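User: Structure tokens for both sequences below?

Assistant:
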Amino acid sequence: MSEDPTTLLPVLLVCALALLALGTLLGWWARGARGSTQLAVLRERSRSLQERAERAETSLQEREAEAASSARVLEAVTPVQRSLERMERQVTALERDRVEQFGEVGERLRHVAASTERLDAATTSLAGSLASSGVRGTWGETQLRRLVEHAGMLARVDFDEQVRAVSDHDREVRPDMVVNLPDDRVVVLDAKAPMTAFLTAQEVDEADRPGLLTQHAKALRQHVDTLSGKAYWSAFRRTPQFVVCFVPTDATLAAALQADPALYDDALAKEVVLASPATTMALLRTVALTWQHDTVERNAEEVLLLGRQLHERLATTAGHLDQMGRQLTRTVESYNQLVGGLESRVLVSARRFTDLGLPGEELPHAPGVTAAARPLTAPELTARTDRPNE
């Protein structure tokens, strides 16, 4: 730390007084011969004090320069210090927000963990339930019904469930669903695909999973053979010769096809179409479009029939109009003939009574009718009038 320059001022004053005193003593000693030795000593001390005074002045100047430099540094550092204070306040606020956010994230993670536990429990319960063939069949039928309704179809209008019928072998069959097509056609769907081995494969280690998936493919192949043997298509008139085997999940069908790549083609050869929810939705959308096209075609036929009827009725009305116009023309001609006869034969004789001086009003002239009925010129209206026998 540099000393305050004001603390050196007394020292300088003392040095100045000492020099003055020494100067006085030197003058006093110089008068006598005996003080020559003391004079030399005093001169030496005087030079020493002067050197100390010079050093003190130099030190004072250096300390003043150092103080001025420190003041400039302090002035330059002050904005930086303020910025650091503001930054410190911002860091404190950010730290407080971070603690709050970490608390919220922790709370949400606890909720996610709880939801995951509930989902695991529900999944375990569902997997246990689907192990039963009856429950699995009901679940598959429910999934199929939701899919069909999502495609915009109505029960007992566009599709029927659990329809009883008799096949060609006099065997009663009851497919899970029959989708109606235009012209009394139907498509038969079954929703009882096996899933036991597939669900078990999801709970075992990776090493044991391929064997279970192979069992799953074999079970699905056996189900295809069963559906092929029932020959659902023979129990319904005008239906394609195949049955759609609905597999409730895409992953279930994909796993079976991965384990047995020839399964799909072999099923087609046996008149069984393996369909996942995605392919079933595409099939149902196609059926819905078929119904829309059928409705458009039926409406077009009705419009064509109505057009023909309207055209015939317009032709008949045109014939009546043409006949009426001709009759009006003949009526005008008869009227003009009557007016001509009246003017040339009757009124001429009647006016002679006036010439003979008989009182009475003058007989008016009866003008003829020059306007004629406008003939039909439109081709649509004259087509029928050109045929006089009709």
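Moving on to the next sequence.
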Amino acid sequence: IDDQRDFLFLDGDCGLCHRLATFLDKRLGKGKQLGYRPILDEDAQRVIENMPEKLRNADSVYLIRNGKPYIRSAAGIRCVLYMRWYYKMWFPALWLIPLPLRNIGYRLIAKYRHKFFKRPTECLFRVD
């Protein structure tokens, strides 16, 4: 994985994750680049293994932005920063929601995502 590039590590077996990657990819801002990898990908695992133990065991989506890892809702909210300006303007409002509340929402969605979003038969989001 290129150290100079930002990456989003997602669950390759999750329909919601596939939709998120596709949604983001179609709405990236001008000049913005974001790579995607399934969490179980060798390159993603190599990066995750080098994180502090608390982050390694997070069972979360991971965003590597400017070399720094983010998990759960912090990763999700920062994804907005890669999008076109009219999406970016939501970032400050979303950031005002306290982290514990955001993470409760994240965990709730993560818990039920497979019930509401069909599991893909294969990893369909762009991997680069």
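User: Anything stand out in the second?

Assistant: Strands lie at 7-10, 35-38, 62-65, 68-71.
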